[in-house]
Write a structure and sequence with these properties.
This protein is α+β, with helices and mostly antiparallel strands and 300 residues long. 23% of the residues lie in helices and 32% in strands. It contains 8 helices and 11 strands.
């Protein structure tokens, strides 16, 4: 009985500081699958080999970016849960990986991180850019409806690039009823005002945007065309292509004619046509490699 009482009175595990950055709408529960995966990844990243991975942190447009070789990560943490998350729920898997890297960089290796010029701004949200993720490799013409929401690694030739444009990320709004300030994110750059006021006791639903608070990042779109001869079954057929959206430091990382490998999340781009063909695949990169120039470009 006393043992049970001592167990029940034990303090609950402390919430990792990174949790609120990557799962702001979820309460921390130690037995949550995401919390368990973060703990497992952090156990590997707190080693000397882990520090050799996370020390390559870079600062890009007021955010942190880490280039991470998936095969190198497997050498210190061959987690079946991470592999399953990246395959079935890639956004959640990437968020867990980012949270684990965040904890390793700003807490476990805090003293080492303090001397890194890239980390001079202190703890903040970071983005992990995966490279060498072989499970997702495919040809461009293999993109199907089943690929939507999944990670895909595509190799091709850049045939078209747009001009660099600003993409709004978030903005602060003022409640017209109580004057409270509410920050709202803009998914994919779409103007999305808050639906209700967050102030206690206020039910205001009308807001005025504070345009001076808008935070923007660089944005660019390119067209990636499959390599001729890459797929023997496609000989003599018209080459397929896919649209790719570049953000932040990926912008301007390649030019028309470059052969690149892009790892990204497949989404659907509406063309405005009401027919079934009025949607085309769109790739949001989480990694881009230019083998011809023998360099890896980090991205958000």
């Amino acid at each position: 009985m006393q043992a049970r009482q001592r167990a029940s009175s034990a303090p609950a595990p402390a919430t990792p500081a990174a949790w609120s950055f990557y799962f702001p709408d979820s309460a921390y529960v130690a037995q949550d699958r995401r919390a368990l995966l973060i703990t497992e990844l952090l156990g590997a990243l707190q080693s000397e080999e882990g520090w050799n991975i996370v020390k390559n942190l870079q600062s890009v447009q007021q955010e942190y970016v880490l280039q991470l070789d998936y095969q190198q990560l497997l050498q210190i943490c061959d987690s079946p849960d991470l592999a399953a998350a990246l395959e079935m729920q890639p956004l959640e898997g990437l968020a867990c990986l980012q949270a684990a890297v965040h904890e390793a960089v700003f807490h476990v290796h805090k003293q080492r991180t303090a001397i890194l010029p890239a980390a001079a701004e202190g703890p903040a949200k970071l983005a992990v850019q995966l490279t060498n993720y072989t499970p997702s490799e495919m040809h461009i013409r293999q993109l199907k409806s089943s690929s939507i929401g999944k990670l895909s690694t595509l190799r091709g030739t850049v045939t078209r690039m747009s001009h660099v444009r600003p993409l709004i990320v978030d903005m602060t709004f003022t409640c017209n009823k109580c004057g409270n300030s509410v920050e709202a994110s803009m998914p994919d750059g779409r103007f999305t005002p808050p639906t209700r006021c967050t102030a206690e006791g206020c039910k205001g639903r009308s807001f005025t945007p504070e345009r001076s608070t808008a935070r923007c990042i660089d944005w660019q779109k390119l067209r990636l065309q499959e390599l001729l001869g890459a797929d023997q079954q496609a000989q003599g057929k018209v080459p397929r292509s896919v649209e790719v959206e570049l953000k932040q430091n990926l912008v301007g990382s390649c030019v028309v004619g470059d052969v690149v490998t892009v790892l990204g999340l497949v989404k659907v781009l509406a063309t405005g046509d009401s027919k079934p063909s009025g949607e085309v695949p769109l790739l949001h990169p989480v990694g881009l490699t230019d083998p011809d120039k023998e360099r890896v470009v980090t991205c958000r």
